Amino acid sequence: MAEEVKLFRTWSSPFALRAVWALKIKGIDYETIFEDLSNKSPSLLQYNPVYKKVPVLVHKGKPIAESLVILEYIDETWKQAPLLPEDPHERATARFWAKFGEDKVLTSIWSVFIKQGKEQEEAMVPALENLKFLEEELKGKKFFGGETIGFVDLALGWLGNLISILEEIVGLKVVDGEKFPLLSAWMQDFADAPIIKDNWPPRDRMIVKFQALRDATIAAAAAAATSK
Amino acid sequence: MATSDVKLLGAWPSPFALRVHIALNIKSIDYECLEENLLAKSQLLLQSNPVHKKVPVLIHHDKPICESLAIVQYIDEAWSSAPSILPSDPYDRAVARFWAAYIDDKWFPWLNGVANAQGAEAKKAALDQVREGLVVLEEAFGKCSKGKDFFSGDRIGYVDIALGCFLGWVYVAEKRNDVKLLVEDKMPGLAAWANKFCEDGTVKDVMPDKDELLEFANMILEARAKLNASSNN
């Protein structure tokens, strides 16, 4: 019943994509509500008063916010096509890597792309270290989930797409095919996987958006530096 | 479960390690506690948590599990008999995970930010932010507890563990800055909860003594201040 499940999202939010992928992988019908973050709907504010952000999943009138929390809820509510493994140790490992992606990989990669010159070179060091851990974790596997896409792939997958967009904007290769053969292959395999490949936001719009975001971030940093 | 099968690599001041102690106590699991010296980390820690090199690490059947909330959920799932730490209903579990994430991603960095704030104005702003977060958590407590003692109801559960582990450090921030953070008239639910939490059988023997923690914090922060002062010369 499509009316039972609603997803509040934006066209570009990578966090909302996680929920889109999970719902589609499990074959769940749902209604999409696209939000304009400069003019948030009363519903969004009511359903996510703490953060006022997307994504929010609403199931039978009850809201769930925070994309990784939403992923676990989807997995526990609809048992087909499981995202997390059954074994408790493997589940703990999956949760560990999803958190690592969120806390470390994202911030270190973003740091590289909003900096320039020597600062950018310095920012590359932790970014590459973090990517090396992911490369290690992929040993012997096609996806982080094994043979099929799982929780960690959905948690990290958008990052692969974003990295390729940022690399294009900045003209800098971070995930080098020689240094990171497994991670490069995973980024491609994930991007091309059924369901995943049909749901990427338009690349040209993403390039425009992230170019603007990068320019604004650099300008703000420069302004802050000169005002000190 | 063989008792020597469960080891916890921890450190007495660590609130994150405390979460694991409490979870193990809730399930009445016997475990070996290995106290780490965070200035001279053991080989076992470095091997078990190569990514972060941090405590806590739970080692069960020689397999390590890292990240305190991942460990707590692991304990709940690997020892699945009652009492449970997370609720059984998926929606209630999502609510619990939401609040634990809020505590880790928003509130704890604010608490941590108090020590890092330089100057009176920045300190006041940092303390105000911690208090604002506690007001949000007070509301969450009201909704989650439904009139009972803990976020989880009658017994300590996931969110209680996620937040309660920081009570000693809240005390440290209060004493060091001569303020009240857990303000009884603004947060009556949390104030009562805090007392019950600290007195609970699963908590009271593993929670570090507040004044020892204060002494430890004073020592660390003074050493850090000296280091900053000398590097600025």
Describe what this molecule looks like in 3D.
Chain B: Residues 89-227 form the GST C-terminal domain. The complex is a heterodimer of chains A (228) and B (233). Chain A has 228 residues and is an alpha+beta fold. Chain A has helices spanning 14-25, 42-47, 67-77, 88-113, 117-137, 151-170, 181-192, 203-226; strands at 5-9, 31-34, 56-59, 62-65. Chain A is globular. Chain A starts with a strand and ends with a helix. Chain B has two domains: 6-79, Glutaredoxin (3-Layer(aba) Sandwich); 90-213, Glutathione S-transferase Yfyf (Class Pi), Chain A, domain 2, CATH 1.20.1050. Chain B has nine helices and four strands; from the N terminus they run E-H-E-H-E-E-H-H-H-H-H-H-H. In chain B, a hairpin with a 2-residue loop joins strand 3 and strand 4. The chains are: A alpha+beta (228), B alpha+beta (233). At the A-B interface, strand 4, helix 3 and helix 4 of A face strand 4, helix 3 and helix 4 of B.
Would you kindly provide a brief summary of this structure?
Helices cover 58% and strands 7% of the residues of chain A.
CATH architectural group of the largest domain in chain A? Up-down Bundle
User: Which residues of chain B sit in consecutive blocks of at least 5 with pLDDT less than 50?
Assistant: none
Helicity of chain B, in percent?
55-70%
- Most extensive interface, chain pair and sizes: A-B, 23 and 24 residues
N- to C-terminal distance of chain A: 57 Å
Strands of the biggest beta sheet of chain A: in what spatial order?
2-1-3-4
Query: What's the number of domains of chain A?
Result: 2
Cα-atom Rg of chain B, whole angstroms?
18 Å
| Content of β-strand of chain A | 5-15%
* Secondary-structure class of chain A: alpha+beta
What is the correct CATH architecture of the largest domain in chain B?
Answer: Up-down Bundle
Major beta sheet summary of chain B = 4 strands, mixed
Q: pLDDT under 50 segments of chain A (min length 5)? A: none
Number of extended strands of chain B: 4
Total number of helical segments of chain A?
Answer: 8
CATH names the topology of the largest domain in chain A as Glutathione S-transferase Yfyf (Class Pi), Chain A, domain 2
The oligomerization state is: heterodimer
Q: Which structural class fits the helix and strand makeup of chain B?
A: alpha+beta
Our count of helices of chain B gives: 9
